[in-house]
Design goal:
- The protein is of the alpha/beta class and about 350 residues long.
- Strands 1, 2, 3, 4, 5 and 11 form a six-stranded mixed β-sheet that branches. Strands 8-7-9-6-10 form a five-stranded mixed β-sheet.
- A hairpin with a 7-residue loop joins strand 13 and strand 14.
Amino acid sequence: MSDELKKYRDQIDWIDEDLLKLLNQRAALASQIGHLKGENTVLRPEREAQILQCMVSNNLGPLPNQSITQLFTEIMSHCRALETQLCVAYLGPSGTFSQEAVEKRFGHAVLSKPCVSIDEVFQTVESGKAHYGVVPVENSTEGAIGRTLDLLLQSPLKVCGEVMLPVHQCLMSRVTDLSAIKRVFSHSQSLGQCQVWLNTNLPNVERVPVGSNTKAILLALEQQEDSAAIASAKAAKSYGIPLLAENIEDDARNTTRFLVIGNQEVAPSGKDKTSLVLSAPNRPGAVYDLLAPLAKNDVSMTKLESRPARSGVWEYVFYMDIEGHQHEPKVAAALVELKQVAAFVKTLGSYPATL
């Protein structure tokens, strides 16, 4: 070993020792804070968001911001687990993109609870069997997840956070020859995200929608002579099924947005969103009137989605995301005016916006 190489390695060893001491000091302080907060408040989303915002703002590299966010999410996850291990419900089974979203938001020191449906995720959190739930709400290619929107309207749960997960789809099978594949299993959203690739490479193959991409893998393994699945590379590795093609989604920027749901009102973090569901009275200009309070109070809208109200034929509710926290003065003023012109308004929650 050269003297120069040894010098650098010695410096790394010293830094690692300091990191270990500092991490344990941080964990001890976090544990003390946990005792002061009490058992009913395990997670403060706004506080964790502020820590991540601060670390990203102070990051001078060479580590990219994404790596800094991931590292500190894991540090907070393991420190938090010294108080109580969070239980987080998600749309399972194991190996789905929903589980990846749980890990991205909460780290790996949590108990992940797979559920068979989005309905069960809501029910699990409402019953207190999980602290939080993670549910998909929209995809950049395929649009909104209707069932999640319907349940947000019905449920007493609050939106406590969001997760943006880049989604890369892969074709997998024990069949090595594409021409031998007769059917492809996947979730309907994943099939929709890969239409161009499928039309080009497997134009005559049957596309079979199933409840989850993990279920698709199991079916492809069961019918391994002529079947394939579309799922994530991570899921393929977990189930030991070979990859035939990677990144087959039609849009390389393909992203799914997930919401964190829970029984918690989240305080302002300094960079927040507020989600609403509202309806307009049946009169000319009613939808315009819903937007006017936002413009008047200088509140930016980032999403507007219509959905059948299920209360009558051709009646709709509108799902809206706006920038800012509901307790910020300009947002609070806009909400007061909205309630004066809308037939119905429900604030689904204010929460830290994703970095």
